[in-house]
Amino acid sequence: MKRLATYLDKGGTGKTTITAHLAAYYAQDHDVLAIDLAGKQGDLGVILGVYEEAQADIDSEDDWPNISTVFEDRWSDIADTVGTEAAVDRLVYESDEGVDVIPAHPGLDGLDDDLGNVDDPSDRYGRLRTFLEDYVEPLGYDIVLIDLPGLSNNVSYNGLWAAENVIAPVLQGELEFKQARGVQEDLTTIRERDDYDADPELVMVIPNHYDERTNLDDKLLEDMGEEFASLLGPAPIKFSQQVRESTYYHRTIFALDEDELSSTSKQVRNAIEETAEELYTQL
Amino acid sequence: MSENGDPDWDALEEEHRPETEHTDRAHEQGETFADVVAKKYGMIDDGELSPTESLYDKHTAAQLAALEETGQLSDLLEKVQAEIEMEGSGQATKSQLLIAALRYTIDDVDPDLLDDARDGYAEAQSEPF
User: Fold this and answer.
1) B107-116, pLDDT tens digit by residue?
2) ipTM of the assembly?
3) What distance in Å separates the CA atoms of residue A116 and residue A153, rounded to the nearest whole number?
4) A93-94/A99-102 β-pairing
């Protein structure tokens, strides 16, 4: 089972949008699970069209267990009682685009603090990995994508440990490059620590919101190529209004017919496809 | 299991309530509630426990926002604080109302618990950090 986490210690770089679009693309030929750890607002579920169903369950208090429960000590007891498939199935919402989604939940609010009370780092950061290895992988998913918060905390570390393959969507700018460098450094630190049993690695930096009309973006893209070399994604992803509207219409651009796509969106779709194909071979 | 073979999630959730686990741990260690409160103050000072509690409930959110917008929040806060002889501190906020309401409720249903919490605070102040 391939695993992938989208991460950058900064909000608003397109992590959730890219995660959703990669998931939708992969779901055309694979069994895909997407997990939203990026905060209770649940944007991944919004784009993939499962937010309203999940929110209805929360409102009717029919929302247990949920993604925050898998980090708790009692998760194993729950799965032992009802069986792995039933336990995981309880968490999953099926999107119209073929992606199985474990959406965010308000329980994620206190999760970082709860994990902070776990003394052993391997236990504190390894809980999502245990969930994936022991409970998700046996179900036959081809790939799991994890959308992480735009900040460095115990929840993010769980995602990095679990996925091991990390991608970073990066906007064009020196501050953004600095963030991507920071991801590389953080992951190197994790790998080098003797007391951490984890090997997360940055496998791709994805230029996002690229504007080919400006010389500045061309220069920045060139600088990104020099900075990140083979890590740089094969195709910069332009800004597309239709992609931006994903959160409003609750679908990715892969749900649109060819004649519904603008010329820019077609280029963005092609860039995402090219990125997804190259990424899949690296995982 | 329910009658149709699906898991009875409500029963399972009740069976796995986390509060029971916390209570068992403290009792097993012979700690009083005041002791545990004192310990939690220490963890906050050490940065191991967040001093911030968040609450997800749309009813509470709607009511608090309405109190704020209609200007009734400060009057209500004063009333609650008066009931528990709690001094106000500057501008009335939603957080202050929640804090006062919680103390009022605990004082009403289990005043000994609030006394123990105060003892725990006193214990925490007397211990070197």
Assistant:
1) 888 888 888 8
2) 0.74
3) 9
4) antiparallel
